[in-house]
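We were asked to recover a plausible sequence for a given structure. The inputs and outputs are reproduced exactly as logged, with field labels preserved.

PROBLEM: sequence recovery
POSITIONS: 108
GIVEN STRUCTURE:
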């Protein structure tokens, strides 16, 4: 422990070396926080990764919904109600004894 104290006392006694060491420390501390790979950039990238992960989950859920619809319209597993609904939406037609209730969520 006395060796460390001796080194520190020698550094303090030579003020020029002490000032240079303090400036070097300040330089590295500044770039550790504000630099290209510093703490602030790390926080920013962490938030960006989180947003990308949430967007990926959203698109995965949407893909799953579309996969389910495609599966139900395939020739092996045909859902006649879904086929009828899609045909009515695409062709914009209804039967003679039917009425239409417009909904903003149609087709989604």
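RECOVERED SEQUENCE:
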């Amino acid at each position: 422990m006395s060796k460390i104290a001796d080194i520190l006392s020698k550094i303090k006694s030579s003020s020029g070396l002490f000032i240079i060491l303090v400036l070097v420390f300040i330089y590295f501390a500044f770039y550790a926080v504000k630099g290209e790979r510093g703490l602030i950039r790390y926080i920013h990238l962490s938030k960006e990764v989180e947003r990308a992960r949430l967007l990926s989950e959203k698109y995965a859920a949407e893909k799953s919904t579309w996969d389910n619809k495609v599966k139900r319209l395939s020739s092996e597993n045909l859902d006649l109600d879904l086929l009828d609904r899609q045909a009515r939406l695409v062709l914009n037609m209804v039967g003679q004894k039917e009425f239409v209730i417009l909904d903003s969520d149609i087709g989604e």
